[in-house]
Design brief:
With 255 residues, this protein is an alpha/beta fold. The chain folds into two domains: 152 residues, Rossmann fold; 89 residues, Arc Repressor Mutant, subunit A (Orthogonal Bundle), CATH 1.10.10. It is 41% helix and 18% strand. The strands form three sheets. The protein has a five-stranded parallel beta sheet with strand order 2-1-3-4-5, sandwiched between helices. Helix 2 packs parallel to helix 3 and helix 8 packs across helix 10.
Length: 255
């Protein structure tokens, strides 16, 4: 077990011992993309190295305020989310991610082990819950089970193609006539929101929530910068990004 004494040792920089105990990597592993949100640097490092040794691709983050941005940028298969984070706590991160339309399966990992905490986490949108102390093999099994249970879950709500534009089911990225587009995370978030309602206006306030999740202090005109960049990247395609002054934006077929 990943016992309390082991956690203390891990916090003091002895995580390598736990890694050696984790055993060799399996002969065959799926390339699961994992977003690890954990503020304890020793534990974060140990878990990241352990999962990478077992064939996963890991992006790590220790700050609740930046977790949603990393979530958008990394397009993970599973999110491993600690509750006790600086800034936004894990439940706030999860709540804002779900509100932004991010449907990636989430496993909450925390020292808060009461039934009430588990229920709160699951009601907020978590898919699984594993309290500390935990066993590394069980944690890996649960992560892989979530990845298998909901293939393509992060884009389960992806809209159908519009004017050759669509969100790829597997990668979560945008494509034009089947070819991947080079979009920054916020440009992708804006395009995803507009593709969900092609031909219909989407309010600026709603787009701010989706493109800048958790950023209460973002300036209202920040969305204009993202829209300008996205408009340049779809110029010459069959789609047109239109600004509706005082209302928002819409995506329509180019004339």
């Amino acid at each position: 077990m990943f016992a309390a004494k082991s956690v203390n040792r891990l916090s003091k920089g002895l995580g390598e011992t736990l890694m050696r105990r984790a055993g060799p990597a399996p002969a065959k592993v799926g390339a699961v993309k994992l977003l690890l949100v954990e503020d304890n640097l020793a534990m974060q490092t140990t878990l990241q190295r352990t999962f990478e040794r077992r064939g996963m691709q890991v992006v790590a983050c220790g700050d609740g305020d930046r977790a949603v941005d990393r979530w958008l940028a990394s397009v993970p298969d599973v999110v491993l989310l600690d509750l006790s984070l600086p800034g936004l706590d894990g439940l706030q991160v999860l709540e804002r991610a779900r509100a932004a339309g991010l449907t990636t399966p989430v496993l909450i990992l925390t020292a808060r082990g009461t039934v009430g905490d588990r229920i709160l986490g699951l009601n907020t949108g978590a898919d699984d819950y594993l309290p500390k102390p935990f066993d590394l093999d069980e944690l890996e099994a649960r992560v892989r089970a979530l990845a298998r249970r909901a293939p393509g879950a992060r884009t389960a709500d992806a809209p159908p193609p519009f004017c050759g534009l669509h969100i790829d089911h597997d990668s979560g990225g945008a494509c034009l006539h089947g070819e991947p587009m080079d979009l920054a995370p916020r440009e992708l978030a804006l395009l995803r929101a507009l593709l969900a309602r092609p031909g219909q206006a989407v309010a600026r306030e709603r787009l701010l929530e989706l493109v800048f999740p958790g950023k209460a202090d973002v300036q209202a005109d920040a969305i204009e910068v993202v829209a300008y960049r996205l408009r340049k990247k779809i110029a010459g395609t069959e789609a047109q990004l239109v600004t509706l002054r005082g209302l928002g934006y819409l995506l329509k077929a180019a004339p």
